[in-house]
Amino acid sequence: MISVGHSPDADDLFMFYAIVFGWVESELGLKFHNTALDIETLNSMALLQELDVSAISFALYPKIRKEYALLKTGVSFGNGYGPKLIKLKDTKLKRNFKVALSGKHTSNALLFQLAYPEARIVYKNFLEIEEAVLNKEVDAGVLIHESILTYHQDLVVEREIWDIWVDLSKSELPLPLGGMALRRSIPLNKAIDIENTLIKAVKVALKGKQNLSNMLLERNLIRVDSDKLQTYLNLYANADSICLNEKQIEGIDMMFKLGYDGGFYDILINKCEDFFIPSEYVDFRYS
Fold it and tell me: Per the record's keyword annotation, is Lyase included, yes or no (predicted)?
């Protein structure tokens, strides 16, 4: 049984549930057990190698590179959009404002800290951030997942994380948010099969988008209504989620460079492709 961790947000559920519903199967007959947990819990579990396959924040990967390979599928990027730094209307943030972030190892936390090094950070479950700002427990917070689509009318966007990304990277490369990683101790033939199964799951999900969306909604697995679900999936679970493309790879490399230059990593990963599963093994094996 292959243990898989994914977040309970709509794009992760959408990309994995074709396997849960039996629409996609492993060629080797592998069985999957899925667990839905918030992304920072998954990041922490990856640091402890508790799952075979896990959704992770891309910003975490350099810290688990020795234990996990980086998968090429099930990815979420921002492209002109992404997490939002929000605050109450008519408030001015000081240089050392108090902010709620969704986790120490998240991609938005990395970029936020590079942009606001004097801010005082507290970490909360992503579902609690909006309320913390409304209650003035913190001065601001970074909203992620479906929360970016609908938030209280008393809140306004101070800054888009996308804009921070553009400023820091001096580019408009896709913004790496969430990816997937696989434990290196898994035999290579199984690792390739797992990645291929996940790729098929994303393809099948996109092909049967409306049907799968309805099934998720009917089971109360989604926190937003049908219209907002489609909007969210168009942003984060789309054709670019099937397999990393060249621009996305450049974006990941840029994030790793920014993190290294900012002192967050112990080494510089110049090419994230060096950490992919060597799928060409199958061609060599049967050539």
Answer: yes
